[in-house]
Amino acid sequence: TRHQRGDTHPLTLEEILDETQHLDIGLKQKQWLMSEALVNNPKIEVVDGKYAFKPKYNLKDKKALLRLLDKHDQRGLGGILLEDIEEGLPNAQKAIKALGDQIIFVNRPDKKKILFYNDKSCQFTVDEEFQKLWRSIPVDSMDEEKIEEYLKRQGISSMQETGPKKIAPIQRRKKPASQKKRRFKTHNDHLAGVLKDYSDVVPGKQ
């Protein structure tokens, strides 16, 4: 409520307790507020040991609101909840009223209001004859298959057929494992050249 009135300066813990009329709480509760509750609250930021409200959109005036809505529109992010704007913009209703037709209101099914940037460069007039012709074509009794069949007869392909075709992955043949010659480990390699080969000696002869 303070933030919505324009009181955006941070408060000490004692000032918060004074405004909320909780000065009679104990020391343990104060310690819990300072060490856990306030510092872990996503809607509160600590500034030089004091505590300030942290809205989703921190807006100063109507110009900041219009820039935010314009940026959302350019990035294709759509609109912004009115309650989020009222939370972060002091005197929000006055600023919204001053912007007039530069913004558009849309009501969601859950009755929450969404604000959109009204990009007037996208506005154009459609010829009345074309509107009548468009509205005169009955499509209520036609399902998607009938519409697609009609388009094919007219030589028009549907969007489903214009996409990139999937290419089946090429299956590679596995190479047969090559038969490696078995190697036997030799011992006494350090005696190579010292021992004589007696394989040619005939038994009984020296």
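The above is record 1. Record 2 follows with the same two-line structure.
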Amino acid sequence: MEEISHTCQMGNGIPPLPDDQGCTMMMQRYCYECGGPLSLSYPEGDERPRETCRRCGWINYVNPKVQVAMVATHQDRILWMQRAEEPRKGYWSLPGGFMEVDESPREAAVREAKEETGIELDPESTELYVVGNIRSINEVHLLFRAECNSHFTNPGPEAQDAQWFTEENAPWQKLAYGIAEEGLRRFYRDMRTNDFGIYYAEIISDELYLTNYHRSLDTISSKYNL
């Protein structure tokens, strides 16, 4: 097992991508199993440096976190929330957050929507809309959609406000993350035609790329009787 003799402190605290040159940040210092010191090394047969215990050989695999969000609709409107906390306090986004360890992605999206906007949704009524990732911050993102039977909202502590917007009156100039605009406008378009895709999203160099897998997933589901 080849040990790496140095670490490089990265400004954002995120492990580098595979094509970064020799710069890896330690995320943890001690072993969960025996408390021994960790060092960066290449386990046998592995092409990535891993935090490995010098005493017992335990390996700490650093994996992405999972973020979920909800596109709740009512008639021709989407529910937006105005953020009450940094980052981007006062700007608008969809309700969302990180999954907890004891819930499904659907349950997490429904919980976040309720905590931040007060709406009640049935997890079984939700549909997957986007799955994607942001490598630069080591996150996987899942976006669900669901129809809400009521326009009632009750913003929680993480939201200053929650409003139902059509595409025409949505606060595009105050969107918390401008890169999400293409995806939101795509949803408004799908909502008008009632023909929703299932998209794979990739953010590369601050550009959003969306691929519609709706047709191929229909084929796979039919073939394997899912």
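The domain at 65-213 is CATH 3.90.79.10 (Nucleoside Triphosphate Pyrophosphohydrolase).
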